[in-house]
Amino acid sequence: MNVFITGAAGGLGRALAGECASRGYNVFLTDINEEGLNRLKRGLERQFGAAVAAKYCDLTDPRSFDALLAHIDAHGLLFDMVLNVAGCDFEGAFTEREREKLVQIVLLNNAAALRVTHALLRRRRPGRRFAIVFVSSLASMFPMPLKATYAASKRFLLDLAMALRQELKAEGVSVLAVCPAGLATTDETLSSIRAQGFMGDVTTASLEDVARRTIDLALAGKNLYIPGLAGRLLSLLGKIAPRSLAAAVVYRRWRRAHLIRAEKIRS
């Protein structure tokens, strides 16, 4: 099994790389964090004796991505699975964010996922099933004031996954959308989870559990994975509640969380 993983040096990407290596898969890792990427490569080789390739790439830069593809093609690499993990978010009111920070969310969460998926579909191992994974978010289920661009970008991935699944299933391609709520990936994320109080606690999932389940479901050809009972219940509410009401409720929740974080920063 040859697996391509973007955002591999980050929290969930790193957990997925470890899960794949522990299963004896060959992994190709890419990330903009070259130091973290090479450190992960050495760790996986040492811990699991895995076959690991790693190469820096800025997925938002077409020239950098073309250089990555040239490297892959020069080594004749073909794949069985692609895990689109790379993503970013910059929380806060829309008008208070820097314009290019907002654009960066779309470039990485959406444009980069399109580049990677389109390229890897042309680099499948012949005669084998192929699995695509998009790491979306529970945020994709709701319009989310104060996280508007991020939530919309994740909705794009969810809808893309559902559409491509139908389009490509006759070719032996499965597509899985993973929609976690909280994942303890960075200090900023942990701060955001703590600011949400009880709701942050009950919707936060273990990176290792999510990584293991993601690979299992991708191999089983499933289409949607929402970790945790709380996440599944909230996704159900997102389906039945009017979207205008959902936006109002989400705004009250996130406004309170942002005020709590701001107060902690001031103190």
Description:
This protein has helices at residues 11-22, 34-48, 62-74, 99-121, 148-168, 187-195, 198-203, 207-219, 229-240, 243-266, and strands spanning 2-6, 26-31, 52-56, 81-84, 130-135, 173-178, 182-183, 204-205, 224-225. With 267 residues, the chain is an alpha/beta fold. The chain has one domain (2-266): Rossmann fold, CATH 3.40.50.720. Helix 2 links the parallel strand 2 (26-31) and strand 3 (52-56). Helix 1 (11-22) packs parallel to helix 2 and helix 4 runs parallel beside helix 5. Residues 193-201 have low confidence and may be disordered.
Features:
single chain, 10 helices, alpha/beta, globular, two-stranded parallel sheet, 55% helix, 267 residues
- State the separation between the terminal residues, measured CA to CA: 51 Å
Please, what is the oligomeric state? Answer: single chain
Low-confidence segments, given as residue ranges, are 193-201
Helix content: 55-70%
Strand numbers in spatial order across the main sheet:
3-2-1-4-5-6-9
Shape: globular
Instruction: Determine the structural class based on helices, strands and strand pairing.
Output: alpha/beta
> In the CATH scheme, what's the topology name?
Rossmann fold
Using the CA coordinates, give the radius of gyration.
18 Å
Largest β sheet strand count, sense and barrel closure: 7 strands, parallel
Which percent band covers the strand fraction?
5-15%
- Put simply, the count of helices is 10
The CATH superfamily bears the name NAD(P)-binding Rossmann-like Domain
